[in-house]
Design a protein that fits this description.
Distance between the termini: 169 Å
Mean pLDDT: 86
Strand content: over 45%
Pfam family, one: Ig_2
CATH class of the largest domain: Mainly Beta
Structural class: mainly beta
GO biological process, one term: adaptive immune response
Main location: membrane
Shape: rod-shaped
Protein name: CD166 antigen
Largest sheet: 9 strands, mixed
Organism: Chauna torquata
Low-confidence stretches: 489-507, 527-560
Number of strands: 45
CATH architecture of the largest domain: Sandwich
């Protein structure tokens, strides 16, 4: 490189400066010397080398003591380059009749340290010009320049918005520069999270270079421009009994810490932190809620609906009624929105609401009226009606000759609640084939039946008794030799009555009349005979087989 047409050596601060003597060695060379020139042009000799004796001598120059080295080819080396080494050095070759000189310019460069942003502001405020910080780069040579950046873009000075002041100082002992650039900045709200950095531009041996500082983000304070109120809740709806938390927030930085909360019906605000809690809310808490800054400058509102559900069942609890009575039942709902109502009887959902104009035994049971608000989680109500239908015992007796023609089945159909206890008695002769058997008690009905083989006409009595009344019904049964057909036996579990078999009934009547005409005399004689001994018979229980046998023996002796 050339400087002003002269040969220039660029050296790095602290390295070794190497300056070759750019003259051709002439014939008859006596010695070579190096000197540098003072600012006023006067020379200072620093090194000497004889061409004949091969010895080297260094002049007593304090700045270069123990730093110089002169080679055989008259190349001069200076260790530990300094800023003060920036001079014009001259190589001299001397013969007996001539002196040759060749100058060399030395330039020294020092890279600055990485710039740092010091004295950083704790925070910035909108609408205020404030010192953001100072960018400092130390120990540079030659002096460098500092540029500020925001989000990668150069910050240009703007009056009362961006103010940059650059100062450069030099260390007199080393000659190195320190650059200090201060930045005053007025931020906007959009500068939140902006990255600020500074870059130092300097010159090195190979040209212009840059070094960047670490980016810095500043907390930007700005006033609240909007207030927002919201409900903090795990559910999208609110029902009676819930705890409700209102939260008020402002979009400023830092956010406001206190607010005024306005409750429906209250004219004055309640001062609180950013939350306001209402415990166990009721339906009268429904309404518009507002919050504002303490100075009432900004306000927001929200409407809260507290959902409720009331259920009134009439009658409810345990209710006892008599069969045939009417019972009006009503399930009244009051709610904050349309509710779903359904009835359950004995764990089975009903298709319609219960209505009792004439109570029957099958109407008894546990009724539940239940209602829900489907859109409101957890809002459900139910009430229970335990209906008891009571009735005095009612008896209907039927008889028929079994298909084997050897016995007859007598059935006592009983209705009543509480369940009646049934007893049988028989008047007349005839063996009891088995004890009484009862069907399942369903809907207040059941039947008790016996199988009997009467040798003569007998009278059977069915006694049904519960807490309300004792009912007695008797039925005349002809001897086994006389077939007869009454209403068929009820074979269903629910004891529902069957329609009489009209054809069988007619045939039975006809056959009975014919037999009666043929044996009228015999029957009449037997009837008179039996009437005389009827008083000797005692009512017998169906299950007492031994007494029936004794009765038959007595009757046989009397007839004999």
């Amino acid at each position: 490189p050339l400087a002003l047409g002269l040969y220039t050596v660029n050296a790095v601060y602290g390295d070794t400066i190497t300056m070759p003597c750019r003259l051709e060695v002439p014939d008859g060379l006596m010695f070579g010397k190096w000197k540098y020139e003072m600012p006023n042009g006067s020379p200072v000799f620093i090194a000497f080398r004889s061409s004949t004796k091969k010895n080297v001598q260094y002049d007593d120059v304090p700045d270069y003591k123990d730093r110089l080295s002169l080679s055989e080819n008259y190349t001069l080396s200076i260790k530990n380059a300094r800023i003060s080494d920036e001079k014009r050095f001259v190589c001299m070759l001397v013969t007996e009749d001539d002196v040759s000189e060749e100058p060399t310019i030395v330039k020294v460069f020092k890279q600055p340290s990485q710039p740092e942003i010091l004295h950083q502001a704790d925070f910035l405020e909108t609408e205020k010009l404030k010192m953001l910080g100072e960018c400092i780069a130390r120990d540079s040579y030659p002096e460098g320049n500092v540029t500020w950046y925001k989000n990668g873009r150069v910050l240009q000075p703007v009056k009362e918005v961006v103010v940059i002041n650059l100062q450069k100082t030099v260390d007199k002992s080393t000659g190195l520069f320190t650059m200090t650039s201060s930045l005053q900045y007025m931020p906007t709200k959009e500068d939140a999270n902006a990255k600020f950095a500074c870059i130092v531009t300097y010159y090195g041996p190979s040209g212009q270079k840059t070094i960047q500082s670490e980016p810095v983000v500043f907390d930007v304070h700005y006033p609240t421009e909007k207030v927002t109120i919201q409900v903090l809740s795990q559910s999208s709806t609110i029902k009676e009994g819930d705890n409700v938390t209102l939260k008020c927030s402002g979009n400023g930085n830092p956010p406001p810490q206190e607010f005024l909360f306005y409750i429906p019906g209250e004219t004055e605000g309640i001062r609180s932190s950013d939350t306001y809690v209402m415990a166990d809310v009721r339906r009268n808490a429904t309404g518009e809620y507002r919050c504002s800054l303490i100075d009432k400058s900004m306000m927001d509102s929200i409407t809260i609906t507290v959902h409720y559900l009331d259920l009134q069942l009439t009658p409810s609890g345990e209710v006892t009624k008599q069969i045939g009575e009417a019972l009006p039942v009503s399930c009244t709902i009051s709610s904050s929105r349309n509710a779903t109502v359904f009835w359950i009887k004995d764990n089975t959902r009903m298709q319609t609401s219960p209505s009792f104009s004439s109570l029957q035994y099958q109407d008894a049971g546990n009724y539940i009226c239940e209602t829900t608000l489907q859109e409101v989680e957890g809002l459900k109500k139910r009430k229970t009606l335990k209906l008891i239908v009571e009735g005095k015992p009612q008896i209907k007796m039927t008889k028929k000759t079994n298909t084997n023609k050897m016995s007859k089945t007598i059935v006592c159909h009983v209705e009543g609640f509480p369940k009646p206890a049934v007893q049988w008695t028989v008047t007349g002769s005839g063996s009891i084939i088995n004890k009484a058997k009862e069907t399942k008690y369903v809907n207040g009905k059941f039947s008790s039946k016996i199988v009997i083989a009467p040798e003569e006409n007998v009278t059977l009595t069915c006694i049904a008794e519960n807490q309300l009344e004792r009912t007695v019904t008797s039925l005349n049964v002809s001897a086994i030799s006389i077939p007869e057909y009454d209403e068929p036996e009820d074979r269903n579990d629910d004891n529902s009555e069957k329609v009489n078999d009209q054809a069988k009934l007619i045939v039975g009547i006809v056959v009975g009349l014919l037999l009666a005409a043929l044996v009228a005399g015999v029957v009449y004689w037997l009837y008179v005979k039996k009437s005389k001994t009827a008083s000797k018979h005692v009512d017998k229980d169906l299950g007492n087989i031994e007494e029936n046998k004794k009765l038959e023996e007595n009757n046989h002796k009397s007839e004999t």
